[in-house]
Structures are given as structure tokens and as C-alpha cells.
Amino acid sequence: MTPKKKGSSAKEQDPAMVRVDRSADAGKVDQSTPLVPIIRTEDLSVSYGDFQAVEDVNLDFGKNEITALIGPSGCGKSTVLRSLNRMNDLIPTARVSGSVHYHGADLYSEKIDPIQVRRHIGMVFQKPNPFPKSIYDNIAYGPRVTDMKVDNMDDHVEQTLRRAALWDEVKDKLKNSAIGLSGGQQQRLCIARAIATNPDVLLMDEPCSALDPVATLRIEELMIELRENYSIIIVTHNMQQAARVSDRTAFFTVSIDEDSGDRTGRLVEFGATSHIFIDPSDKRTEDYISGRFG
Ligand SMILES: Nc1ncnc2c1ncn2[C@@H]1O[C@H](COP(=O)(O)OP(=O)(O)OP(=O)(O)O)[C@@H](O)[C@H]1O
Ligand SMILES: [Mg+2]
User: What is the pLDDT of residues 265-275, one digit of tens each?
Assistant: First the structure.
């Protein structure tokens, strides 16, 4: 996989908006580019007990695209993300309604095994969370527990670490504990662990929020490389990051019911990142992106 050329600032006009500064190949789509969905949600709603956290989300996530989910705290970004690989199953009070289709199959059908779902749709969390095991075993773990057929585990570990742009830094210490790596290396290890089971979708929930700017840039470059083979959905509070790496952006907000005061997350607008950041259709999106609220 050849690393993408680092790009210069975009030339677009962005008066009050976040300066759109993207890598040359990020944001490769515009509003007219057809979207080939790999995941599609239909009227997706999630509640925790009696609390309706998000309602009626209809979204298509593009194959080999990076989709950013943005919006103020509490609007349900993580909730939506977790519903895409059935991580919400692990929260006893969470209830999901509507549907999530992956390659046309309903992920919430009784016939579907959530463990297999998570093998195909991997997840990377906010805080790097390597297992307290060796670097090698962090990668080998997923294939082993999912009984994945691997001809030669040493080769698989090497290939996976190469794809996550970590091999050169760790090849001489594969038996060392993963906990000894730097934060940025740990997060690339977690990305490697997520891709070790050959998923085709990667979900990332604020994957750079615990990292310094250099490590953040490294992860962003990696995401753009990985996009060739994976579809990536990233939650981020960093507007620059969404503008730099994503092809399409979904903006969520919290709507507050005037009578009951209930706060429910809703999708406001979805489109090509270039459109959302430069010429959004909804005033709420514009206000959020330009820092007027949220
Ligand atoms: N396990 C849970 N139990 C009960 N309520 C929850 C749970 N997880 C989230 N919520 C609530 O659901 C709503 C959406 O939360 P969520 O974490 O998805 O928001 P978010 O957009 O990811 O916010 P942030 O940007 O702060 O991470 C919030 O009101 C939150 O308090
Ligand atoms: Mg969140």
C-alpha cells in the first residue's frame, strides 16, 4: 500500500467555517458522487431504559469511504456507532429498534451471531486499550478466539502490523508487553488488533483524543491508507480532523422537547464533507461547525 501524498491546504472559500485543510486524497467525494453503501441504517433508534437517546437515524455508510460522525456531546454519536456492530448488546438497558443492514443482511436478525458481526466490523476506542499481553499476542488474539483460519500466524501478525504502519517500530520486540508502547503506538496496535480478523468496516470512537498532534497525524495518515481496503466510520470532536480525513460527514444534534424537556439525539444533515463544511444546508450545522454552539 503506498502512503498517500500529503496535501496542501484546500483552496475552497470558507469564511466563518473551519478552515478546510485536507490531505490530497481525503474528501475524494463531492455531493454528486454516488454512494455505494456497506452499512445502511433505517429508522434506527436507541434507548437506554426509558430514555430515548437517538431517534430515527437513516444513514448510508459508503464502501471504501471515511464517514465522520460529528455533533455536540450527548447527541448520540457513540450510541449510533456502537449499534453498527452490536456493541450496544453489552449494555443491559440498551434497546435498539429499526434496522442496520450490512451487505444487505439485517444485523439484528436472530440468525446473526454478534461475535461474528464484531469480527467483520471492528472497533477502536477513545483510549488505547491494548491487552496486557505481548504485542504479538494482541494481534493473534482475535484470529484465535474467532477460529479464523490462518495458515501461518507469524506471517499474519507481520502483515497485520505492516498494514497498521507499526511493523518497523516493533519488529524486534514482538514478545514485549504492549503496555510498554507509546500512546500513539498503542493506538496503532489497537487498529492492528481490530484489522487482524480481516474485517471490512472499522468503527473508531474519537481514536485520537488521547494522543498528541504528531501521533494524531500518524493515525489520520493511516486511516487514509486503510480506506483503500476498509470502510471507516469515525466519531470525532475535532472539526479539523473531520475535514482532513473524511469523505462524508453526518451531523447530529440534541433536540429538546419543549414540554417534557426530553433530550433526544437526531441526525440533522449528511453529505459530502466538502459540502457540509463549506455550504451546509441546515443552519444548525453551520452554527456548530463555525463554533457558534456545541
Ligand atoms: N450506558 C448508558 N446508559 C444510559 N444512558 C446512556 C448510556 N450511554 C449513553 N447514554 C446517554 O445517551 C445519550 C447519548 O450518549 P452518547 O454517549 O451516544 O453521546 P455522544 O454523542 O457520543 O457524546 P460525547 O461526544 O460526549 O461522547 C446521552 O444523553 C447519554 O447520557
Ligand atoms: Mg461519545
Answer: 999 999 999 99
Q: Which architecture does CATH list for 37-217+233-289?
A: 3-Layer(aba) Sandwich (3.40)
Please check the confidence at residue 28 and state whether its pLDDT lies above 80.
Answer: no
Pull the grid cell for residue 90. 453489552
Query: Does ligand 1 come within 6 angstroms of the Cβ of 74?
Result: yes
Q: 88 CB under 6 A from ligand 1?
A: no
Instruction: Give the pairing of strands 94-102 and 105-106.
Output: antiparallel
Which residues on adjacent β-strands are paired with residue 256?
263
Quick one: which of 20, 61, 32, 74 has its CA closest to 289? 20
What number does the ligand 1 atom closest to the CA of 265 have? Answer: 14
Residue 223 to residue 68: CA distance in whole angstroms = 12
